[in-house]
Every structure is written in C-alpha cells, then in structure tokens.
Amino acid sequence: MSKQQMIPFQTTLFVKDTCLCLHAQRAARALARLFDEALKPHGLTNGQFSLMMSLNRPVPAGMADVAHLLAMDRTTLTAALKPLERRGLVIVAADEKDKRRKVLRLTPAGEVLLAAALPAWRETHATLDQRLPDIERLRADLRALS
C-alpha cells in the first residue's frame, strides 16, 4: 500500500490567493451581510428585496422567468416566496391564460414596503460605489460571469 502524497501548504496558499470561486463566495457573503443590515429595519433580507424587486414589473412574472433572473431553481424560488406570501407581500396565482403556469406579483403592501426599502438599498450602493475604485468594471465583469 503506497502512502498518499500530501498537498504542499504552498499549494493551499496559492489556491487561497487565486481561487475566483472562493473570492466570489467571500465577497457575496460580505455583500449579503451589508445589505441584510441595511434592509433589516424594513424587515427584509437582501434576497427578499431582490426577489420583490424582480416582481416589480407591469405584467405579472412567470415562475420560470423569475427563477432564471435570480439564478435559482424553481424549488428554491418557491421556498423563498412562502414567507413573503405569508406576510401578504406577494401573490402566487395560476395564470389566467394557462392554469398550469404560475405567475407572481407584488401586492399593494409589497409595493409599499419595496418603495420604503429602496432608499436603504440606494444608500448602501452609493457607499460601495465610493469605496470601490472601478465599480462599473466590476459590475460588467460580474454580469459576464453570470
């Protein structure tokens, strides 16, 4: 039986310093905490805010469209919608034209809450825009990856 070779510690340091996935995950968690804190007075998480904002459109959105936009599977989207439905902020209903298809929309209470939370989101983004030297490049690079 041969002894398995251990990965040198230098390799661990190299991966820590260069791994795009690690750095993207760390940045995503840091941003999520920052926006969660900003939106907390409104009783929303950053994920709920993004979900509600994705429903802010003139015509109700289909589940598949929203799931695609938020890079979620439908099961995860369904789970994320439940607390917002219980709070009376969103409605999930059968599409009038195709009863097999579900559509999502904000309720009037959801629209009011989203409008109230928007200034906190804008203020947090303004702070980040000032802190990061080339924010538009970062946005473009992130869109290219997603």
From TrEMBL:
Domain HTH marR-type: from-to ranges: 17-146
SUPFAM superfamilies in alphabetical order: Winged helix' DNA-binding domain
Protein name as it appears in the record: MarR family transcriptional regulator
Cited PANTHER family: TRANSCRIPTIONAL REGULATOR, MARR FAMILY, TRANSCRIPTIONAL REPRESSOR PROTEIN-RELATED
Annotated PROSITE patterns: HTH_MARR_2
InterPro entries: HTH_MarR-typ (IPR000835), MarR/SlyA-like (IPR039422), WH-like_DNA-bd_sf (IPR036388), WH_DNA-bd_sf (IPR036390)
Top-level division of the source organism's lineage: Bacteria
